[in-house]
Write a structure and sequence with these properties.
Length: 214
């Protein structure tokens, strides 16, 4: 019988190595990636059974990536493995289409169980999330009512994240394969929608909204 295939996404090499060591006895590690855009490409190519993804990924954060993965590889289970225990992140994760949510601090005791449970079509939510939050989350595979937490288009969210990461318009344009004018257009529209007037204000809004983590 073939073993479940995992794709791991985290921007810390030591974390990836630790996960591989912990999981390889029971699962096949199909691949590892270090940013959200690489995750999308690898998921489409590898079609893994389960994706373990950190929220705080560069270029495209894990929540934004999960939104796209749900359309790209709808049968793949998505588990967030993150340091963020805040209820806002948990709810946004399930709105994006997560099947599980595990904190890195409890990975050794909960991660294998989370993978097994999600492969059965069930939802796994770490025991470290308060009960009052857990009660508002889905009990079966699916998602909370989808919505954008900050009212931006997918491309605007991409641009805002990379601006908040300190990337220049030229670099963003190269990453997205668009012109610098297109990047500036999306940045301007995002600032207008959000009612902010500077890159500093835009960055602060991105952090508060979970697009970027400090």
């Amino acid at each position: 019988m073939s073993r479940p295939r995992l794709l791991l996404a985290d921007d810390h090499r030591l974390v990836l190595e630790g996960l591989c060591s912990m999981l390889r006895d029971e699962f096949d590690i199909a691949g590892t990636v270090g940013d959200g855009r690489a995750l999308l490409a690898a998921a489409e190519n590898l079609r893994p059974d389960v994706i373990l993804v950190d929220i705080s990924l560069p270029l495209m954060n894990g929540i934004e990536a999960a939104r796209r993965l749900r359309r790209l590889v709808p049968e793949t289970r998505i588990i967030f493995l993150t340091m963020h225990a805040d209820a806002t992140y948990v709810r946004e994760g399930f709105r994006a289409g997560a099947d599980g949510y595990v904190l890195k601090s409890s990975a050794h005791s909960e991660l294998v169980q989370a993978i097994r449970q999600t492969l059965k079509g069930q939802v796994f939510i770490t025991s470290q999330i308060p009960e009052e939050v857990r009660e508002t989350l889905p009990k079966r595979r699916g998602r909370l009512k989808a919505r954008s937490s900050i009212g931006l288009t997918a491309r605007e969210r991409e641009v805002v994240q990379m601006v908040a990461e300190g990337r220049a318009a030229k670099e963003i344009a190269q990453i997205l394969h668009v012109t610098i004018k297109t990047v500036e257009f999306h940045k301007y529209n995002a600032m207008k929608r959000l009612g902010v007037h500077s890159t500093a204000e835009l960055t602060l809004h991105a952090v508060k909204s979970g697009l970027v983590s400090l």
